[in-house]
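Protocol check, entry for the methods section draft. Step 1: assemble the input record (protein sequence plus ligand SMILES). Step 2: submit for complex structure prediction. Step 3: store the structure tokens unaltered in the notebook. Ligand used here: pyridoxal-5'-phosphate. Step 1 record:
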Amino acid sequence: MALVSIPTSTLINASLKNFCYYILQPTPPALDKLRQVIVQHILGACANASRVSTSSIVRNHSSFYVVSPAAIQRQITLWRQELPQITPYYAVKSNPDSRLLNKLHMNGVKFDCASGREIQDCEAYSGIGIAVAKDILFANPTKTESDIQLAAQRKIMETVVDSPEEVWRIAHSGWRPNIFIRLTVDDMASRSPFSLKFGAERHSWKSILGALDIAGLKLAGLSFHIGSASSDATQYRKAIELCRKFSYETKRKIDAVDIGGGFMPETFKDSATQIRSAIKDWQMNGLIPPPLRWIAEPGRFFSSVTHTLYTNIIGAKAGPGGVGWRYTLDESIYGQFSCIPFDHQRPNWVRVGGNRVERGRGFLFGRTCDSLDLIAYSETMNRLKEGDWLCFPGMGAYTMSSSSEFNGFPRPRVYYQDEGWVEPGKIEIEPGVIFPIETKSSINLSLGDIKN
Ligand SMILES: Cc1ncc(COP(=O)(O)O)c(C=O)c1O
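Step 3, stored output:
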């Protein structure tokens, strides 16, 4: 390959754009060397090494992701260690990255899809094909007519409802899946609650079961979602207890329970402890037969920590009244930072090359022409300059999937490699940062403390 003949010194000074091109090629030794240099550069920078000059490397490169296969593997192993009895169905909505889907599938993870398109993505990227439709749970409780047709055609065998109306729609379509009933659960402690929109409250349990019986559709089991990013791990326990109550009151044997998603990497072990103990309680209780099958729909657990976003400052100018600075980032609220309004995330960053001593008022704007495109604000933000690169770890969930190309700005490229991936929590936290758009989108979407 011609690239091998480029002298190492030239390679070291090559733009990151070229570097990323090179590393995606088969890797002869010279390119390995290049990879090492850049990797040290990025990693060293994030560990606050001061020596590096980034400008020549990255001037011509737009935002990009580094997705770590090792980090994905680590999450899969962690899941298996903590919840060996629960089969994960990855929530594709959190990030439909093709190689992520493929790697998860190769490791026995199944898929929670919310639409026909997600079903097709899974087929295309995971290599599972139509024959293995049993690996897909169509977990949207209100499906479009055309998606119902697609699911029927693909022979998807399991879906979720939370109303008798949805049972009738499925029945009239001729599709014959087994049905999970999604219950309304207490999700008050979560950052993104769902109970205003989804779930069957106690008063509707019997009518849904009645509809299933008349339609001749089989009850697969029960499902719930305690909301994303819950601060209360006991909500999983309470929700599992509610499933037990459902079984007792309706006198139906429950074969399977789907414990949903919402698993935060930081609190995963606490949640797992609660879940294991709630399952054990059910198994020990002789009155109501326990489900034999347990599944879950983790999204962010797999997609979040595995992705590191790199993006740079394309402009820096004085703040209003000459106080502080207004920075423009080569990304936006309409792009990868859509996780702030839609998922209430508060991304943390570090300047590649280490933070500076100087601090002051700073506005971090996105690159679009909309003034609402304000990513972050702080009175004590680290001083940035045009050309600086920022590294945002843990940016894989509800970023790419909910981003648009508003104003004609393309989505970032994705590089699938371990080098350059940064573990969230390992970087210095910017003090006093607020995310104004996140605050504005905080409406109450929880039904509250539901007494089912
Ligand atoms: C039905 C359903 N399952 C699973 C998930 C994944 O949640 P998380 O990414 O918080 O694990 C979601 C998120 O919106 C969801 O709506």
